Amino acid sequence: MSLLKLLKKFTKEMTKMIEFKNVTKKFDNFVAVENISFTVEPSSIYGLIGYNGAGKTTLLKTAAGIYEADGGDVLMGGQYTFDNDDIRKDLFYIPDDLYFPMNVSLKSMAKFYADYYPNFSYKTYENLTEVFGLDPKAKIRGFSKGMQRQSEIILGLATKPKYLLLDETFDGLDPQKKEITKKLFMEYIAENEASLVISSHNLSELSNLCDHVGLINGRHLTMDCSVDDISQNYSKLRLIFNRDVSENDFRNINYKSLDIDGKIAMIIFEGNSKEEKEKLNALLPVAIDEYQLTMEEVFLNEMEDKKYDITKIFE
Q1: H/E element holding 291?
Q2: For residue 265, which of 255, 304, 233 has the smallest C-alpha distance?
Q3: Along the chain (315 residues), what's the average pLDDT of each consecutive run of 10 residues?
Q4: Strands 234-240 and 287-291
Q5: In order of start, what are the domains of the chain with their CATH numbers?
Q6: At what angle do helices 145-158 and 106-116 cross, to 10 degrees?
């Protein structure tokens, strides 16, 4: 490929990607997120995970230009997002806490968005309204929480954005509507080469949707990898012995977590270390079984470890 073609390809990709560059946001003396960096490629869905209050919403509002970063920058298509009307017309943000004015309907909101977003598609709006089975003339405030969420999804996708920011978007949706919504998001980003960031504290909602994930913990991004690489970041082994074992047997193993039940030990350690596995073999187990960690297990192992003695709570 010639240098000119490479340059054109790079420029095309740059016009669609989302870049978080050392983003920090404070509220007075409270640091909500600090020095966060990652990139969302075109035709990619990036899952932002973390417990409630970790800073996911703050980061998304900063990306949407609602907040101004106190440090670092968010760029979309190479342009800064804060106070940028051109970017806002290619961006749609669905917040966790939805708000609709009194007496508005889907139909009136569609007209409102069509006046602002130059790429708004009434055909897409009508198709999605039919898919979700909503009455376009009914007042949105009379809808259930799930139906209001569906309304915002319909309007958001109808604007045909290059960049989608979604905060806890599956909250309130029934299982059927969740699956429909996932398929719609995947189809949309594939067809339009859009970049999508979606936050959730519910890992099962993102496990078969995202191609990349990032974990916010303690206001920092502590994990940033492709879903395919998650299994390579950890090893989970079950060891069976012909004797009872204790934590002391594993004192020379650099493990992340260890659970022992008599003759059986379940151990998780980072990476796929040949050295650690050799140490485990030296303990002479009668069997070793290897498992792939789920996203939920990775999430729990990356979080700060707080162990409580539950038996003493109600004394």
Answers
A1: strand 287-291
A2: 255
A3: 49 69 95 95 93 90 95 94 90 93 94 95 97 96 95 97 95 93 96 94 82 90 85 83 92 88 90 81 91 77 58 58
A4: antiparallel
A5: 14-218 (3.40.50.300), 230-312 (3.30.70)
A6: 30
Structure tokens at 240: 């069976």
Which residue type, as a one-letter code, is found at position 208?
A: N
Structure tokens at 80: 């800064």
The whole-angstrom distance between residue 120's C-alpha and the CA centroid of its chain comes to 26
Nearest to 128 by CA among 187, 47, 200, 196: 187
What is the CA 146 to chain-centroid distance, rounded?
Answer: 20
The Cβ-side half-sphere exposure at 267, using a 13 Å CA radius, reads 28
Q: Find out whether 199 and 166 touch, Cβ atoms under 8 Å.
A: yes
- Rounded Cα gap, residues 49 and 202, in angstroms: 8
Name the residue type at position 161. P
DSSP secondary structure, 249-288, as one string: GGTTS--SEEEEETTEEEEEEETT-HHHHHHHHTT--SEE
pTM comes to 0.82
Coil, helix or strand at residue 170: coil
Question: Residue 300: enclosing H or E segment and its boundaries?
Answer: helix 295-302
